[in-house]
Amino acid sequence: MMLDFNSILSRVLESVAVGLSEGATIVAERARQHAPIRKVFGGGRRQMRFLSVAEHEQIKGMRSALGLQAFGSAGPPRALRVASQHVVNNFSASSKRRQFATVVTRGNSANMNVPAMRTLGSTPGTLWSPRAEQHLTRRGKSELKSMRANYKGSLGGRLRGEIYVVPATVGGKTVKAMVVSPTSYAKYQEFGTRHHPAHPFMRPAAEESGGQVVKAVRASLGPALAAGVPGRGRVVIRYTMKAGG
Amino acid sequence: MATSTSAPIKRAIVQKLRANQSIVAALNGGIHETIAPRKVRYPFVMYDLVAAPYDYLWGSVMLRTTFDVFVFAENPVEANNLDALIAVALNDAELTVDGQYTLLCRRVADTPTGPDVDAEGKRIYQIGATYSIWTDQPLGG
Question: Is the ipTM of this complex over 0.90?
Fold first, then answer.
């Protein structure tokens, strides 16, 4: 029996590319979890956030089943739809909230164009927060007012929001996928500076996900080999990572 | 006995650097972990643990630690010279780690960082590299 090694090799490389892309997605997800977030809330480490659309719908369904008053019957406000899940603000319907809203809107009228920020203060009841205990710190307020930390209508979250995956490509006998953090200050977070301690998030993600990446590649390789190679074969998978500036 | 952590590896790195007289003589600001105090003199060395996943094997635990070791200096030549000394001291070094055997200590990547300006307006060069240190220890001490 004649084996066409070139076709086997190309099939293997294509399968590796599929598995590696999947692996890169795992690494990117882990990097997002590790990426540091701005400390804009006072009162300890617990973080407040907008309800996600799914959570909003779930609560709505539950209240309806229990015969309670409809909550947010007009559907989740736009702010909930645009806010990324890990970010971040909640205010109880108290005078403090209104006071804060005044500060925000008076400070910078441009804020009114940002849905998340408009929702923060102007429409009571758009945020549902039974355990709202935290309020923005001075820094948080300042960042909200200046819009310096505004990212896609939310306060903060840029570093993790911008991490993306370049799907795997085959070049000769090498298959390469990339997880990229394009944010300008990403390298300062990753490596630290004279003034700022490092908060590595990309390399720990790669280190911790190595096993899963190899598993994903191995899983994608199985069918490709089974189709073309009779008997037993052995595939060695080497996983390397490289940091670039 | 409990499993030994990455702390003895940090100690071993510092011991290795301090054992090298050329490095000690060249450093005015000493060796610091994570971040150096504001008024420390240049040049100084800073090291930081990047990741330390544990691999539980049959009968042993392997720690695959990654460290960044940076030199901060007022001129790039000094920074590069010190970085070269550190590379000689740490690359393929036999580290003495309490409760663990060193399997590997290798410089795996030079780290790209540009010049920075410190609180006094001085231009500061940050040159360094990432080191991979693997250790092994019997399970349960």
Answer: no
